[in-house]
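User: Watch each token:
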Amino acid sequence: MSESVLPKVNKARAKGGPARVIPGFGLTMGVTVTMLSVLIIIPLLSVLGYSVSLGPEGFWQVITRPNVLKAFWTSVSCSLLAAAVNCVFGLILAWVLTRYDFPGRRLMDGLIELPFALPTAVAGITLSKMYSSTGLVGGFIYKLTGYQVSYTKLGLTIALVFVGIPFVVRALQPVLEGLDRQY
């Protein structure tokens, strides 16, 4: 701690109160807890409350509806496929970034962070437009195959790969850097 903070901390401790090193901690903690409550805790509790009010039989009827089962299957299958793609290509990307020095390496390393920098809504809108039948990539695929990528399982899988690949690359890079070069 700096010299100017120590006397204040010692005076607060002598009075029996807590030592406040961070000014405005109470206000920022209050704002944080309020936002967390409004955006996450209260909606989750309302879903839980509705689920409990249905009872076990009603809950089972809701989660076994055909459209709900299809939604579960779509989510799980696309997530598993995206995870497999991320494992393969994330390992390749991490290997290339840690083992080779080439022009544009820093740019590629920075582009890995793009999904972290973009808000989720912006990434979703951008991907859906880019892969639509009038988009840059989706238009090419549509003209070539007649298949629209946006709003399909393929589009969902591409979005999951986009969001997940940085986690794989950033998790593998320190391991590969620490690995002996002979391996």
In short: Residues 128 and 150 are 5 Å apart (CA to CA). Residues 1-59 form one domain.
